[in-house]
């Protein structure tokens, strides 16, 4: 098989944006279509933070995307930032990822997205064949101690686009400062097109994240399928300068201060062991979880995190389960044990052992999880000083877990978005 055939026949390689860009260059005469729109989605705000933000949008052709932004609504003094990092931009024909850095905390910015269509014929043969910008000017507000403390959590959406649209409608009504997407965005993605559809342009919800910044805690399903192995092609990592070199590969964790709340994002990874023969040894959840414990210990000491009155952690798989037959995810080697109903982790004892002592010592009041597709509240009990909320989903009982600070308390409201009701409300004191 020669290289051209290999690219043509390998759906797996479509997961890597660098490869479609190369494939595009090699097959440009056959498939390039200049009649259609270049920018084919609204922007999505990713990785809410105090001094940076990510902006992603979909394109239909080989493109070099950019964002123009300013504190002024008319964008007259706008700065322009191109996709990709240093040295070269990330031209590709799927998703433009632009990271804005050096922003002011708790500040409103206006922005516009645009892209140049690139004809790439070779290393000395390239040109801009057209430019397009979204006429709409959008806005976002950065995080920080002075930001409004108001978050919403969705989880286990599993690319069910009708209930997802319902969640987006409710979120537009609630208007949180940020949304935490707590994993299992889809069940699998073999090609980047379905991953892109799930994250950037969900049918019926275009523009859902154009002015509401999102944070991601990946779920077990978000590692499944060839495209999901390169999730960062659609949902960018945090910038390398936002984390020390030791943590460069931990681009999905976050520690964000938003008003009186410090938010910690952790990735519980797969719900099957690395040793499970079903997965052919191609997952490395164990060292990943250990590396996150080292990151977490430092993140909790960051001044803006340590000084926050409320500390809330988010991760996909629960870190506690009161049911004796719930598989804790540490049954070596194949997740099977007659004591447990399921042959995969219902909760994550390994992560709990690694992370919750650190969170408890820091005074974490609440851990918000998902994965079980059924809402549950676990009140603090005995030595477990933190509460846990397990969100529901995806079709019958999708939840929105809303948190805000009012009168010195962290108020949590759990919405059942199918029934349109409030399931429960909680109130947490300062740590
Ligand atoms: Fe799920
Ligand atoms: Fe899950």
Could you please describe the fold and organization of this structure?
The radius of gyration is 22 Å and the shape is globular. The protein folds into two domains: 127 residues, Immunoglobulin-like, CATH 2.60.40; 279 residues, 4-Layer Sandwich (Purple Acid Phosphatase, chain A, domain 2), CATH 3.60.21.10. It has 431 residues and is of the alpha+beta class. Strand 1 and strand 2 form a beta hairpin. Helix content is 17%, strand content 27%. Bound molecules: fe (ii) ion (2 copies). One fe (ii) ion binds next to loops.
In short:
By secondary structure, the chain is of the alpha+beta class. The protein has 7 helices and 20 strands.
Main attributes?
431 residues, alpha+beta, Immunoglobulin-like, Purple Acid Phosphatase, chain A, domain 2, 6-stranded mixed β-sheet, 7 helices, 27% strand, globular, disordered N terminus, binds fe (ii) ion
Secondary-structure blueprint:
Blueprint: H1 3-9, H2 18-31, E1 44-46, E2 53-58, E3 63-70, E4 79-82, E5 95-100, E6 108-122, E7 125-133, E8 138-141, E9 150-154, H3 161-174, E10 178-181, H4 192-199, E11 214-216, E12 254-258, E13 261-265, H5 285-299, H6 303-306, E14 310-314, H7 349-361, E15 366-369, E16 376-378, E17 387-390, E18 399-406, E19 409-416, E20 421-428
Parallel strand pairs: 9-10, 10-11, 13-14, 14-15, 15-17
Antiparallel strand pairs: 1-2, 2-5, 3-4, 3-6, 6-7, 6-8, 9-18, 12-13, 16-17, 18-19, 19-20
Helix pairs in contact: 5-7
Bound molecules: fe (ii) ion (2 copies).
The site of one fe (ii) ion (FE2) has 7 residues, from loops.
């Amino acid at each position: 098989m020669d290289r051209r055939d290999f690219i043509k026949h390998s759906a797996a390689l479509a997961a890597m944006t660098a490869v479609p860009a190369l494939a595009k260059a090699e097959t440009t005469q056959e498939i390039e279509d200049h009649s259609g729109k270049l920018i084919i989605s609204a922007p999505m705000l990713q990785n809410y933070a105090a001094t940076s933000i990510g902006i992603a949008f979909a394109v239909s052709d080989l493109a070099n995307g950019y964002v123009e932004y300013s504190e002024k609504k008319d964008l007259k003094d706008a700065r322009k930032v191109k996709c990709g990092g240093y040295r070269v931009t990330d031209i590709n024909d799927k998703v433009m990822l632009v990271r804005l850095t050096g922003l002011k905390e708790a500040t409103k910015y206006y922005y516009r997205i645009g892209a140049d269509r690139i004809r790439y014929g070779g290393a000395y043969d390239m040109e801009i064949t057209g430019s397009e910008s979204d006429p709409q000017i959008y806005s976002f507000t950065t995080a920080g101690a002075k930001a409004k403390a108001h978050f919403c959590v969705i989880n286990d959406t599993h690319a069910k686009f009708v209930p997802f649209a319902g969640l987006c409608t409710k979120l537009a009504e609630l208007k949180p400062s940020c949304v935490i997407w707590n994993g299992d965005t889809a069940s699998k993605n073999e090609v980047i097109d379905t991953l892109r559809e799930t994250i950037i342009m969900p049918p019926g919800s275009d523009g859902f994240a154009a002015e509401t910044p999102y944070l991601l805690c990946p779920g077990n399903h978000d590692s499944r399928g060839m495209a999901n192995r390169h999730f960062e092609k659609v949902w960018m990592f945090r910038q390398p300068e936002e984390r020390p070199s030791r943590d460069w590969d931990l681009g999905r964790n976050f520690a964000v201060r938003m008003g009186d709340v410090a938010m910690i994002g952790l990735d519980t990874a797969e719900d099957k062991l690395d040793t499970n023969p079903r997965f052919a040894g191609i997952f490395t959840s164990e060292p990943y979880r250990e590396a996150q414990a080292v990151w977490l210990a430092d993140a909790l000491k960051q001044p803006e995190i340590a000084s926050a009155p409320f500390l809330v952690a988010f991760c996909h798989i629960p870190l506690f389960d009161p049911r004796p037959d719930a598989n804790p995810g540490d049954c070596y080697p194949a997740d099977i044990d007659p004591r447990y109903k399921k042959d995969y982790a219902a909760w994550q004892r390994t992560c709990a052992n690694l992370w919750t002592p650190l969170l408890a010592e820091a005074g974490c009041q609440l851990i918000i999880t998902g994965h079980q597709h059924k809402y549950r509240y676990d009140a603090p009990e005995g030595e477990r000083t933190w509460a846990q909320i397990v969100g529901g989903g995806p079709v019958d009982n999708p939840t929105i877990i809303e948190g805000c600070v009012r009168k010195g308390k962290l108020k949590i409201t759990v919405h059942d978005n199918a029934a349109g009701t409030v399931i429960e409300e909680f109130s947490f004191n300062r740590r």
